[in-house]
Amino acid sequence: MIRATVLKSSAHRRMPWKNGGGETVEIAVSPEGATLSDFGWRLSMATVATDGPFSIFAGVDRTLSILDGNGMSLSIDGENPVLLTRDSAPLSFPADVSVSASLPDGPIMDLNVMTRRKGFHHRVDRVDVDSTITVHATAPTWFLLCHAGILTVDCGGQHDLGPKDALLLEQAKGKDVVVSGKGRCYLISIDLI
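Now predict its structure.
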């Protein structure tokens, strides 16, 4: 049976970055109470205010999306820099390679999804809602993060989400989820390998 949990933005946990260079807001982590060194998967948001290197997470894959601000340029594993903006598709890359960020136009806030490579796989999609849509949960662990606006999510029960609120659905694979309202959201699927 599907289990739904609303994760209000006011209850997200704040903690320092692994490299000490800033602060992250943890939305959810598995197993519950896991640290940065032993999580299976983790969803968080971070404000990036200065140029600098990303923390290294051995054996982890990550996907970044820009929530607020005018963009961040990422140099990943020595490749040419990639400019990530609010209109860019979510960007996936290994979290255990050298990554350096620069801010061409001020601070940003990002959404960061990380999964441990040996046990999990994830996917992040950005969706703009302007009325009602039906989405199909493709993994047993599925999140909807309301980025902007007010959204109502119906998955056997109705849940209202405001900016930065999230809905966690467990045992969700194969279920249809109806999202209504006007806003932007991120759909995050986490699957076992």
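The chain has a mean pLDDT of 93.
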